[in-house]
Write a structure and sequence with these properties.
The protein is an alpha/beta fold and 355 residues long. It is 46% helix and 17% strand. Helix 7 crosses helix 9. The longest helix is centred in the middle third of the chain and has 18 residues. It is globular and about 60 Å long. One of its GO terms (cellular component) is cytoplasm. Its cofactor is NAD(+); Co(2+); Zn(2+).
Length: 355
């Protein structure tokens, strides 16, 4: 597949990616190479990468425990300390191989260590391939609040090898699928319609579906790298979805949700809001709701859950001047950003989701 040129960096696919990675190692005089992994990718993915690397550089592996709960500044401090102890300098290269937690955190570590060293992302989950590793956002959570601390800074390249997906559990695949569905809903109606009957999809075509998703996200980001305008469209489903994800992460009585599971709920809720703002038709809403509910299990919300979720909206990064801003769909395949939504409509959306 042809490489995609993003803002200051390329996204390479499969075997081409490894050729470009080794070429990059030859052409740049790095002092050493650090590979950041989590406990899952250290076991399942690193053994595939290491034999392919063509370099005489000293390679050090830095592992942290897998899971969103470890995507925090404490983990960064530990990694910064290890980098320092093992002699990392301004000419160090860091490769982040893993899902969104690894690429988000690893990119942030690299962007801030000694005011920034080069880094490369090798995403290994569907979610990180189509979303987390593309677009230059790097960061960590602040307590249970998602991605509150971070920078926008681009890698030297992103290398997408879909063979890594063979190690990814089905629930993680569904989590990544949510972002692909979002790309269709906000940008490409025809792409969305490819997913209306999952049984009809030949997953031999998965490479092409991933490619199109990266294309869509990249096209949006290229227009608005720092999220002042159209890039906010990528937040469809995320205003409520992130609040739900954060609430379930911090509440010990709840089962932690995967990112895509929370975003799927967020997309249903925000589609309902779009309907009641006369931006989509009832038929479009019913199609979105029934499609998402056929893929994702219903999440149970008690009455006592809703108020704390709404309180978490206050911390959403899209807020401006204390007003919560939504990106809503204006027909399938189009988006309307900077939409204010009253609490009564949000509560009504939750009631409809539960019905």
């Amino acid at each position: 597949m042809q490489s995609i040129q993003a803002n200051n960096y390329p996204v390479h696919f499969n075997e081409t990616g490894y050729e470009k990675l080794n070429q990059h190692l030859k052409e740049n005089k790095y002092s050493n190479l650090f590979i950041i992994v989590d406990s899952n990718t250290n076991e399942h993915c690193l053994p595939k990468l290491l034999p392919i690397l063509e370099t005489d550089l000293t390679i050090e592996i830095i592992e942290f425990e897998a899971g969103e709960i470890n995507k925090n500044i404490e983990t960064c401090i530990q990694i910064w300390n290890v980098l320092t102890e093992l002699g990392a300098d301004r000419k160090t290269l860091i490769i982040n191989i893993g899902g969104g937690v690894v690429t988000d955190l690893g990119g942030f570590v690299a962007s801030t260590f000694k005011r920034g060293v080069d880094f490369i992302h090798i995403p290994t989950t569907l979610l990180s391939m189509v979303d987390a590793s593309v677009g230059g956002k790097n960061g960590v959570d602040l307590g249970n609040l998602k991605n509150q601390i971070g920078v926008i800074n681009t890698p030297k390249m992103v290398l997408i090898d879909t063979n890594y997906l063979e190690t990814v559990p089905q629930n993680e695949m569904r989590s990544g699928l949510a972002e692909m569905l979002k790309h269709g809903l906000i940008f490409d109606k025809g792409y969305w319609e490819q997913f209306l009957d999952l049984k009809a999809i030949d997953f031999a075509d998965l490479d092409q579906l991933i490619y199109r998703s990266v294309e869509i996200k990249n096209e949006i980001v290229m227009q608005d790298p720092t999220e002042k305008n159209i890039r906010k469209s990528l937040n469809f489903g995320h205003t409520l979805g992130h609040a739900i994800e954060s609430y379930f992460l911090e509440n010990e009585n709840k089962t932690t949700l995967l990112h895509g599971e929370a975003i799927a709920v967020g997309m249903i809720l925000e589609s309902y809001i779009s309907l009641h703002k006369n931006l989509i038709t009832e038929a479009e809403y019913n199609q979105i709701k029934s499609t998402l509910k056929s893929i994702y299990d219903d999440i149970i919300f008690e009455e006592s859950d809703i108020e704390p979720i709404l309180e978490l909206l206050i911390h959403d990064k899209k807020n401006e001047y204390g007003t919560i801003q939504f990106a809503l769909i204006e027909g399938i395949g189009k988006i309307k950003i900077n939409q204010s939504v009253e609490n009564e409509l949000i509560l009504s959306a939750f009631e409809d989701y539960k019905s």
